[in-house]
Every structure is written in structure tokens, then in C-alpha cells.
Amino acid sequence: MINTTYKLDDSAITLPISQAARTTAQQFASQQPTAEKAQQVQMNTLAVSVVNDYLQMMEIPTDLRASDSWNSVMRLTANVADLQMPSVGRLECRPVRLHEQTCLVPPETWEERVGYVVVQIDESLQEAKLLGFIKNVTTETLPLSQLQPPEALIDRLGELRTSTFDTLVNLSQWFTNQCQAGWQTVESLLNSLEARPAYAFRSAVTFEETSYNQAQTITRRAKLIDLGIKIADQPVMLVVEISPEANQQTSIRLQLHSTGNQIYLPTGVKITVLDGTGTVFLEAQARSADNYIQLQFKGEIQEQFSVQVSLDDMSITENFII
Q1: Percent of the chain having pLDDT more than 90?
Q2: Per-residue pLDDT reduced to its tens digit, 30-72
Q3: Are 174 and 242 in contact (CB under 8 A)?
């Protein structure tokens, strides 16, 4: 045990716990019904916050809002400490206290995880250590001696981010009528919706007049985005319009439309554009009487970005390359 502790300490990465992280952890803990549950949530929140700060320092994109650990219902009903990572998946951040030689990994976290990082929280809640990483877990008790050094986490995330390149929606291919699964012409999608009375499309797809040269090729594709019960099982429709411009640039316009019997978008539904580092670039939010919202920007060939559609704690992200 002494040798194991030494090796862990030797490779561990020491990080401060920010005041913001402690405040959030205390807030989440105060919402719990028992002292035991409050302590669990506090530790989980601190672990996730520390890993989130570390990855952002390493310029690796994260999305706290889309994590189950930031969902009030999931915090109450499950023991989760996940961190959502755009284009990668969920990373589980499990806390341990000083001198513990094993880590609890609840069964509800054994699936849909890209890996597990163990975070040691000191008694003062001022400092934490990233003890190590492991790719898979199948038992509730994880001996810390099985952990790989924290550098293995960065290697794993690099592999996963590289492997997602082929799953990016390639916008340049749309100009030659090549589309990825789920994307179709606006007309085809509208026709399929009209064929299903429950999803009859009530609002027109309207693009404002633009300054584009009419000789340019303008291509539009659409996809249904389903946020489930948050919008009463009525998906919204994401429309992407692209047009080539000078200097190897592409003009991109995004629109989010209501479908079904709803004339207007759900109040508060949001469309967000994130750049290749995961930083928010543009954002629009529906008001009480918007039947669509839109964003417009330009990008260069091979530039990557993500489009996130969200409502309250639910979100869906589509990843693109120009």
C-alpha cells in the first residue's frame, strides 16, 4: 500500500479547487434530501469541476451543461460524476478522499463512458489531485493500483477526437449532393412530415433576402432534432444553408424551426455555434412568439465547428467540417 501510494503521488497532477467550484458544489449539495446524499453530490461536483478546469487548461472542449452531473434530476436519482465532451462522449470523474486505496464506481456509470479519471479531494476542499485514468470499469470497487498515469487520459481523448473526424458532417460534400445519414433536402423533409399528421409542418421555412450573388451555388439541407419530453415529443428542424464565397470561404446560415402542431418554437430553445476548441462563437434563443431563429457566419475550408440545440438540461450536438 505504501508503494502504491508513492507511485500515485509521483505521477498525480495537483490542481487548486476554485471558489466557483466550491460554491457550485455547496449549492448542488443543499438541494439533496439527506446529509449522505449531499456529501456524495458535493464530492462528485468538485471532482467534475476539477477535471473540467484541467481539460479547459489543456484546451480540450467540455460541456458542463450537457453533463448528467449538472442535471438536478440525475443528481438526485443517481450517483453520477460525468463530464460531457463534445465530439467525444462522457468522461466519468470519480472522487476519493486522502489515504483511500479504492474508488467507488457505481454500476449506472459502467456504460456510455469514454473512460474514468479518479480525483483525490483533500479535507480542506482547497486542492485536488488527478490520480490517474482507466478506460473501462466493470466492478464497483476499483483499486487505485490499476490506474494509469493522468497522461493516459489525454492520450485517450486525443484518440477519440481523431476517430470522430470521419463522423463529422462534411459540408463541402453537399455541393456534390453527398449527404450524411439524417440529412436531406428541405423539401424531402417537409414532405415526410406532411405525410404524418401528428408532425404536420405548420410554419414556413423562410430565408431572408441576402446579398449573395445569384450565380453562386446555394445548398440547403435539414434534419430533425428531437429533444424528447422537453418539447412534448415534437422535434424541431435544423436547416443548414451553405454558399461558397471568395478566398476559399463558405457562408453558413443556420435556422431552427418548429414542427408538429406547434406554430412557435418552445420558449427558451437555443441554438449555439461552438468553434473547433469548443468555445461559444454565436448563440440565439427563441422568445415566446418565434417560429424560427437563425444564425449566420463564414468559415474556411477544413475549419471545424459544432452546432448545439438545447432546451433546459437537454441538448443535442451536431459536428461539422467545411
Answers
A1: 48
A2: 999 999 999 999 999 999 999 999 999 988 888 898 899 999 9
A3: yes
Give CA–CA dist 87/165, Å, rounded.
9
Helix (H) or strand (E) holding 2: helix 2-11
Considering just the CA atoms, what is the radius of gyration of the chain in Å? Answer: 22
Is the whole model's pTM more than 0.85, yes or no? no
- Amino acid identity, residue 102? T
Residue 305: what residue type? F
Q: How far is CA 44 from CA 68, 70, 92, 131, in A?
A: 11, 10, 10, 15
* Domains of the chain listed by start with CATH number: 2-164 (no CATH), 168-321 (2.60.40.10)
* Highest mean pLDDT pick, 43-57, 162-176, 213-227, 284-298: 43-57
**CB-based contact 104:140 (threshold 8 Å):** yes
- Per-position DSSP letters for 289-306, written without gaps between them: T-SEEEEEEEEETT-EEE
Q: Is 313 left (phi over 0), alpha (psi -120 to 50) or beta?
A: alpha
Q: Are 81 and 92 within 8 A, CB to CB?
A: yes
